[in-house]
């Protein structure tokens, strides 16, 4: 089934609680996997504007992640440091490996990244090592489990 990328459901900006949302505002994710009716893995086309981050640095307990840079460059930031990813480069992150990661667009043009990840039935769990944030079945919570309002 061919997907019309232009009409795929898009989510712009960030859903993080303030102030963690700020560096992640200048982006749009197009939900290509949902547009195709996929249920076992997700596929997003991420448009990452100049200066924007793909997310806060995080890792998932139950979800593998893979990114492919369609148009770069972007900077991959992990526990190990920073790595430049240019057009055609890719990276993967194994579920349960506590290596916080995200992408930053430090350039002047919009970057384009294909994101692929597990869509499992297990309880969501993501950790954000740099900030007081965690994801669980209740959504975004403080590391002590108290929900953000």
Average pLDDT confidence is 96
Structural class: mainly beta
Terminus-to-terminus distance: 41 Å
CATH topology heading of the domain at 31-82 and 96-136: Jelly Rolls
CATH architecture of the domain at 31-82 and 96-136: Sandwich
Give the biggest sheet.
6 strands, antiparallel
**For this structure, what is the CATH class of the domain at 31-82 and 96-136?**
Mainly Beta
The CATH superfamily of the domain at 31-82 and 96-136 is Jelly Rolls
Helix content: under 10%
Order of helices and strands: EEHEEEEEEEEEEE
Q: Could you give the count of β-strands?
A: 13
Question: Are there runs of 5+ residues with pLDDT below 50, and where?
Answer: none
Shape: globular
Rg to the nearest angstrom?
Answer: 15 Å
Strand content: 35-45%
Strand order of the largest sheet: 1-2-3-10-5-8
Helical region count? 1
């Amino acid at each position: 089934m061919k997907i019309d990328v232009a009409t795929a459901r898009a989510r712009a900006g960030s859903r993080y609680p303030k102030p963690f949302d700020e560096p992640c505002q200048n982006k749009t994710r197009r939900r290509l996997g949902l547009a195709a009716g996929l249920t076992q893995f997700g596929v997003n086309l991420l448009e990452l504007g100049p200066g924007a981050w793909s997310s806060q640095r995080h890792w998932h307990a139950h979800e593998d992640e893979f990114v492919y840079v369609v148009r770069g460059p972007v900077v991959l930031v992990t526990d190990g440091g920073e790595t430049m990813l240019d057009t055609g480069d890719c990276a993967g992150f194994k579920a349960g490996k506590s290596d916080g990661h995200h992408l930053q667009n430090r350039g002047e043009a919009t970057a384009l990244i294909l994101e692929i990840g597990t869509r499992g039935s297990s309880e969501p769990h993501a950790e954000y090592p740099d900030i007081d944030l965690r994801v669980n079945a209740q959504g975004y919570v403080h590391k002590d489990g108290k929900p953000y309002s």
